[in-house]
Amino acid sequence: MGIDHIPSNDFSLYDHILDAAVTFGAIPPRYASLQGLDLYFAMARGLQRPGSVDVASLPMSKYFDTNYHYVPVPLTPATTFSLAANSKPVQEFLEAKALGIQTRPYIVGPMSFLLLARASKDATSGFSKLSLLYSLVDQYAALISELDAAGAEWIQLDEPHLVMDLSAQEQAAYTEAYTRLASKIGGKRIKVLVATYFEGLESQNAELAFALPGVHAVHVDLVRGLDSFERVLAIAQKTDKSVSLGVVDGRNVWKADLSHAVGLVQQAVEVLGAKRVIVASSCSLLHSPHSLDAEKAATNADLEMIDWMSFAVEKLSEVAVVTKAVNFGSQSVKEALDANKKSVTSRLTSTRIHNPAVQERLRAVTPAMTTRKSEYLTRRAVQTKLLNLPKYPTTTIGSFPQTASLRRIRAQFKKGSIKQDEYERLLKEEIATVVKFQEKLDIDVLVHGEAERNDMVEYFGEMLSGVGFTKNGWVQSYGSRCVKPPVIYGDVSRPSAMTVAWTKYAQSLTSRPMKGMLTGPLTILCWSFVRDDQPREYTAKQIALAVRDEVVDLEAAGIKVIQIDEPAIREGLPLRRGKWNAYLKWAVDSFLLASCGVQDGTQIHSHMCYSDFEDIMDAIIQLDCDVLSIESAKSDLKLLQAFQERAYPNELGPGVFDIHTQRVAPQAEMKTRVDQMKSCLAWDRIWINPDCGLKTRGWEETEAVLKNMVQTAKEFRAAAASA
Ligand code: MET
Ligand SMILES: [Zn+2]
């Protein structure tokens, strides 16, 4: 496609940060007896082989503000690094070279690797990850030397932390790291490109990045960081470094405005000369779906929407067109530029994106709509009477195993090979099974199992107006799991109820409370491709109004407990602290707008997982949900301590077991977790639940682990009763 710098080592079996940990031998001691893929996947997912191995997985977190998960490797003062023999970056470079392709191997840079890693809970207090910097950098030098010897001309070190607020110590460490690296690889031919993305470089960090010794080029994200462009150019001009300009959005699906992109590149060329300018996507195309071909080929293809979009393959041609336009003049790619202008204008002016009624409703939102009728303690009293739950109530997070047969039923229905009533019959059968299963296990607050949902965001996306969906717009989320984010192109509204019938049916089968399950506005926003012609705040609040209507309808249908999942609330947090408050304000308001339409007796739950929630504790408290279930089995004690420090005022269910593993957590382990919670939270506010939904699990392990969970709750209940 005319791309000059082709990356390698950009495919991962689980995630890139875990790959780097293995490349540099940062293996926590509990995995020491394992090797190869067993080792790799045990770190990611845990491994249980009766009689031989029983190790839990490492924690899981989100890569900056994306929905791409990574494994933060725990480090201690005793951690040592050593470059793996025949490491993946070298192997894959050689593999491409053998095919006649000269690649630019990619790996996360040493500073970002350390900053993304976690200080292990076993580390002595006062341990700083940065104390490991030199020993790590020496292994980077060894890797780069091997790549140089193998014939690599460039290496790309991703240092996205350069867009964050760095402490003086971290800034100094950046300089030390790259000074040491340069001193070790100084004589080599290989050149180093340091890549930043997801934000612009503010002035100190821009100076820092362009002053890093031994670095030949710096990549900047001009989609998120356009406002830092002039500054970057001025700083680059004082150096002899090249600049890689990310002018095509790697995080969204909209076509780039090519004439704008050409203008930016031309401006850089005028200042730096063409030799020192590289044209690129803003970040890795890992965050984009693959190609529009499958969309175009689909029956009932939405040709208008397809014309607005570019997936990874199309983004490559955008990069190529921009480069050509700058090198050979706009005339050389006139046709492509004209077509692009037409598509870009068509999206911004299409009548499909505007819905005056939705805009009017948003303007009419009042403060009363974002406040519950009474404060928590009053609600608690009403709910206690209505729900009559035992202490340490048990529940699950919503989804039950999505088996192959279930997925087949949904696929057949979509294809039209089974009809509506047959589909409903099959799903009702599934719901009945799930309800019986939970009753047999003696769970207190039940769920219907989410069998009708392909995905917690996609399902709602398909039902909302103003939201489009793709055939094959898959994006990796974690490991081999992918999601197909909806495309929010216009004003969002809810034409009709989305979950009420299924939930009502499930409730009709049991006398226990059936929890209605919804995905919250921030999660729908963060896990979709979002229009860029209005602030995200407006889009979030439009979605919130749609969710609010669903909440009210569920209540009217007799549902007493409603969970609004917000696993992505932390993900939307801007990377720069200076922008946090503004986001948190509209994020909290959006959740409240969605959840506050109900009476005191209706118990509102929310659920969150796999993020650093310590950063946003105040906002989480402001959500004022009656019960919050939150992933914690994978995250050591950090999270519980954060809740302790803030004295979480409502009810809380920190997960007692990890759901990303086939491993059946033993009861003793769950008991320890609950004991830990009790030292941080009021005992009569604790719920017992898993970390997250069970859709990726099989039935057998689900049954075994939930038995342990219910038994654990019962033992605590009995102890409380006799105390
Ligand atoms: C990523 S959070 C998942 C919540 C959802 N209700 C489920 O159980 O799958
Ligand atoms: Zn979750």
UniProtKB/TrEMBL annotation:
Transmembrane segments: none annotated. Its cofactor is Zn(2+). It comes from Chytriomyces confervae. Belongs to the vitamin-B12 independent methionine synthase family. This is 5-methyltetrahydropteroyltriglutamate--homocysteine S-methyltransferase. Zn(2+) binds at H607, C609, E631, C692. L-homocysteine binds at I397, G398, S399, D565. Binds 2 Zn(2+) ions per subunit. Its EC number is 2.1.1.14. L-methionine binds at I397, G398, S399, E450, D565. 5-methyltetrahydropteroyltri-L-glutamate binds at N67, R481, C482, W527. Residues 393-714 form the Cobalamin-independent methionine synthase MetE C-terminal/archaeal domain. It is an enzyme of class 2 (transferase).
